[in-house]
Amino acid sequence: MKIAVHICRLIVGVLFIISGLIKLNDPVGFSFKLEEYFSPAVLDLPFFAPYALALAIFLVILEVVLGVLLLLGYQKKITLWSLLGMIVFFTFLTFYSAYYNKVTDCGCFGDAVKLTPWESFSKDVILLVLILLLIFGEKYVQPLFRAKTSVAITLACILACILFVNQVINHLPAVDFRPYKIGANIPEGMVVPPDAPKAIFEYAWTFKVDGEETTLITNGEYPTVDGEFIGVETEEIQKGYEPPIHDFTIEEDGTDQASEFMAEPKLVMVVAYDLAKSNTRAFTEVKEVTDKALSAGYKVIGVSASNAALSNRFIREFQLDFPFYFTDETTLKTIVRSNPGVLVLERGTILQKVHFNDLEDLTFKN
Question: Which GO terms describe its cellular component (predicted)?
Fold first, then answer.
């Protein structure tokens, strides 16, 4: 039992620290995931949505600190029961997502490791079992250091987490795990290889034969049945290959112009997923840097999920010399964790990407 507890302690502590640090690197992305859970389509808790970012920061720091406390063996009773409460909460969320197919990615490891809903639930069940074993074997969880040393390490951990999260919120994630990272080519990220696995579907065909309904299952071919066709239900039993970038469009009046813009040798793209939620003060500097880009011969566009009326209002108010196009909100949130943010591209390759606090870092070649 003692050895089992030591192994469980190491696994749980390390996993909580790694999971927390990955999300701490991108707390804005985790807050988007929490907003998805709070939406009417999932848990219907919209009153929590305005506090999603604060809650995300609290949860990820708590996750890291609990992992550290477990490894230190300090305040073990509070630590173990806190771990149990957290894993029960996340197990409920992942089960709800998996069973009702509401959220396709729990965000447990941010964008670094993608898990299906059932994989996320299975992972949480395993952690739940390991934490229960730790609670039953609590007497074997002994502290590694004296209390003062453990307190000092814990406080240093909390301070480091606060400083780090402040940095990534006011700039961009230290490590970008998304398909729109600097150096990525967007058109290449949308390509499906010729030998990529195809999706497999199962079809349930229903006919009325001799006055009774009969259902036949096939992989797509229409069955030969001497009866009246009633209907067919389709189920995807195996997913096909999905390219890293599969939802990128730049639309004007319903026409996708992404391929045209991705061919531009010098393109600046101002990204604002929701202009109503944008930092409006940043647009004064956006105006300055985009004017510099235009003078250097760059094509400048804005992309937003906001309606034309709001986009035009921003253009008039800040005297912007570029038009806005429509792009899906989720895609824009994935492209850059800043509202607004600015990208510099060369034939679809992302050369620069900055938060609105770092617009002065942009450089434009003549």
Answer: membrane
Q: Treating both helix axes as pointing N-terminal to C-terminal, what angle do 2-24 and 117-136 enclose, rounded to 10 degrees?
A: 140
Picking from 119, 152, 170, the residue at the C-terminal end of a domain is 170
* Same-domain pairing of 271 and 214: no
Same domain, 105 and 139: yes
Q: pLDDT tens digits for 206-231?
A: 988 877 888 888 887 778 878 888 88
Same-domain check for residues 288 and 325? yes
State yes or no: pLDDT of 247 exceeds 70: yes
The overall pTM is greater than 0.85: no
CA distance 128 to 84: 7
**Which of helix, strand or coil describes residue 345?**
strand
> 340 CB contacts (<8 Å, ≥6 apart)?
270, 271, 272, 278, 279, 282, 283, 286, 356
CA 54 to CA 51: how far, in whole Å? 5
In a domain, 185, yes or no: no
pLDDT band of residue 104 (cuts 50, 70, 90) is low
* 33/151 same-domain check: yes
Give the total number of structural domains in the chain.
3
Q: What is the pLDDT of residues 43-97, one digit of tens each?
A: 778 888 889 999 999 999 999 999 999 999 999 999 999 999 999 988 888 887 7
Instruction: Identify the domain containing residue 227 by its residue range.
Output: 200-238
Element (H, E) at 237: strand 228-238
